[in-house]
UniProtKB/TrEMBL annotation:
Catalytic reactions of this protein: nicotinate beta-D-ribonucleotide + ATP + H(+) = deamido-NAD(+) + diphosphate; beta-nicotinamide D-ribonucleotide + ATP + H(+) = diphosphate + NAD(+)
Stretches that traverse the bilayer: none
Organism listed in the record: Synaphobranchus kaupii (Kaup's arrowtooth eel)
Protein name per Swiss-Prot or TrEMBL: Nicotinamide/nicotinic acid mononucleotide adenylyltransferase 2
GO BP annotations listed: NAD+ biosynthetic process
Membrane topology label: Lipid-anchor
Keywords: ATP-binding, Cell projection, Cytoplasm, Cytoplasmic vesicle, Golgi apparatus, Lipoprotein, Membrane, NAD, Nucleotide-binding, Nucleotidyltransferase, Pyridine nucleotide biosynthesis, Transferase
Classification via CDD domains: NMNAT_Eukarya
GO cellular component, one term: cytoplasmic vesicle membrane
Length: 308
């Protein structure tokens, strides 16, 4: 039986168009967290939604200001999923690999941890040091006006690149804080391990098998250094998909497939179906999108007269 401190603490990061964000996207987060918790090996402490940059060039992609707002509306009642605008705010489109590395580096800056270089992993843990005596890394619940954008932790870097090991801070109690939500008062951990995992559907996993679509070096970092959590969609055969890619086969132990005995209706919900329903005035759109998102779409006249 693993203790709380020996379990791997996980932040799930999902990249995509979210054009618009659907109930299926939120369901994916919930199913992944439930599955990881049931495994007894993981504790999910946060989820991040990162909408793609406008220059991605996908037909029918509405401006990021709308997609960010819809995402915010979709997670407004969640106490653990937040929306991160960094990707949208860049000068141009960012690769999934770059987004993962940004959040890892952001965590490094916030926590003061020293991380090994991606291309020269250290075989021994690196002890973290405070950085330049800037503002306090820990804040109490009475002072959260200047919130950092990532979970606040302190400590050392383990030998695996996507992981941050953290030791107990001096303060008796501290809080995980992000831009939109207080993730709750944390236990006084002697040492915990934190990983950022890419959360995706089986369609993204399948895209890894398309020659030339992904750079091999990016795939090596995404699957090898970080790891992915896959929520299968519409009865997809993830085992077959993984066997079609040498990189996926090589890092199979870093791929967690969320198994579900019941085919949940949310697993077949998609942004494409949602846009079609909106264009055709189909009442089933309420099955695909949350009401605040539908209200915003109608108010802003999105998708109604567009194709794609």
């Amino acid at each position: 039986m693993m203790t709380e401190t020996s379990k791997t603490h996980v932040i799930l990061l999902s990249c995509g168009s979210f054009n618009p964000i659907t109930k299926g996207h939120i369901h994916m987060f919930e199913k992944a967290r439930e599955y990881l918790h049931k495994s007894g090996r993981f504790i999910v402490i946060g989820g991040i939604i990162s909408p793609v940059h406008d220059s991605y060039g996908k037909p029918g992609l509405v401006p990021s200001r709308h997609r960010l707002t819809m995402c915010q509306l979709a997670v407004q009642s969640s106490d653990w999923i937040r929306v991160d605008p960094w990707e949208c705010y860049q000068d141009t489109w960012q690769t999934t690999c770059s987004v993962l590395e940004h959040h890892r580096d952001l965590m490094k800056r916030v926590t003061g941890c020293i991380l090994s270089n991606v291309n020269s992993p250290s075989t021994t843990p690196v002890i973290g040091q405070p950085q330049n005596q800037t503002r306090p890394i820990y804040q109490n619940n009475n002072n959260i006006n200047n919130k950092p954008t990532a979970v606040k932790l302190w400590g050392k870097m383990s030998e695996s690149l996507g992981k941050i090991c953290c030791v107990r801070p001096h303060s008796d109690r501290f809080t995980f804080v992000d831009e939109n939500a207080n993730l709750g008062t944390a236990m006084r951990y002697e040492e915990i391990e934190l990983r950022i995992l890419l959360l995706c559907g089986s369609d993204l996993l399948e895209s890894f098998c398309i020659p030339g679509l992904w750079k091999n070096s990016d795939m090596e970092v995404i699957v090898g250094d970080f790891g992915i959590v896959v929520v299968p969609r519409d009865g997809a055969d993830t085992e077959r998909i993984m066997n079609h890619s040498s990189v996926l086969r090589k890092y199979k132990e870093n791929i967690i497939v969320v198994k579900d005995d019941i085919n949940h209706p949310m697993s077949i919900v998609s942004s494409t179906k949602s846009r079609l329903a909106l264009q055709h005035g189909d009442g089933h759109v309420v099955d695909y999108l949350s009401q605040p998102v539908i209200d915003y779409i109608l108010q802003s006249q999105l998708y109604i007269n567009t194709s794609g």
